[in-house]
Amino acid sequence: MTDSDKIIDEIRASRCRMSQECGHDMSRYVAYLKQFNSRYRAQVRRYERRRRLSEANAVTVESR
After folding, report:
1. Are residues 14 and 3 in contact, defined by beta-carbon separation less than 8 angstroms?
2. What is the C-alpha to C-alpha distance for residues 1 and 57, in angstroms, rounded to an integer?
3. What is the distance between the alpha carbons of residues 4 and 64, in angstroms, rounded to a whole number?
4. Is the pLDDT of residue 62 over 70?
5. Cα separation of 64 and 38, whole Å?
């Protein structure tokens, strides 16, 4: 098992725990995740900006 595999396993286990805490209810799970947006607002904004740039670049590449 590589280091990447271990990290992915940890992420999956964490997501599973969070889902269990929410009773495997998708609406509750999404609401639970959204509460972290304010705590990590700067990181969320950076991610959103990168995502928009990535999508814009993908459109540019497709149009060539």
Report:
1. no
2. 34
3. 35
4. no
5. 39
pTM above 0.70, yes or no: no
State the Cα–Cα distance between residues 16 and 19, nearest whole angstrom.
5
Q: Length of the chain in residues, anyone?
A: 64
Token pair of 56 as six digits:
């814009």
- For residues 28 and 22, the answer to whether their CB atoms sit within 8 Å is yes
Where is pLDDT greater, at 12 or 40? Answer: 12
Q: Which residues, including other chains, have CB under 8 Å from residue 28's CB and lie 6 or more apart?
A: 22
Tell me the C-alpha distance between 29 and 17, whole Å.
Answer: 11
Residues of the chain with pLDDT > 70, as a percent, come to 91
Query: 63 pLDDT exceeds 80?
Result: no
Q: What is the DSSP code (8-state) at residue 2? A: -
